[in-house]
């Protein structure tokens, strides 16, 4: 989903909690996005108070110790759903796919889910909504 705004105004929020994959910031920038990168969902929630990203890229990390949700990503999605801003792309471990379905069913704003290992071409397609 490409913003109708001029390229210099497009913002992408990248949330890298666990990482272990390549830094995709150069790819995001090559697609014309200014990139904000944080390491926790809590920091992302703080950024959303003053920024409205066009694209949000985050990891799904299932946390079985949560009673009422599947992961901290769920909190972020609830905020994004209320504000109506941003297309969300989620990276996930294939072993957690059955848990991710609960999230995608509850939050249709998730534009794409990409299993690890994530390919740059898949990210580009998801961002451009091909």
Q: Layout of helices and strands, plus pairs?
A:
Blueprint: E1 11-15, H1 25-30, E2 34-38, H2 41-48, E3 55-60, H3 72-83, E4 87-92, H4 97-106, E5 110-115, H5 120-128
Parallel strand pairs: 1-2, 1-3, 3-4, 4-5
Task: Tell me about this structure.
The chain has 130 residues and is an alpha/beta fold. The chain has one domain: Response regulator (Rossmann fold). It is built from five helices and five strands; from the N terminus they run βαβαβαβαβα. The chain has a five-stranded parallel β-sheet with strand order 2-1-3-4-5, with helices on both faces. Helix 2 (41-48) runs parallel beside helix 3. The radius of gyration is 14 Å and the shape is globular. The relative contact order is 0.19. The model is unreliable at 1-5 (pLDDT under 50).
End-to-end Cα distance: 9 Å
Query: Main β-sheet, in a few words?
Result: 5 strands, parallel
CATH class: Alpha Beta
Number of strands: 5
Strand order of the largest sheet: 2-1-3-4-5
List the keywords.
five-stranded parallel sheet; disordered N terminus; 130 residues; alpha/beta; single chain; Rossmann fold; 5 helices
What's the short story on this structure?
By secondary structure, the protein is an alpha/beta fold.
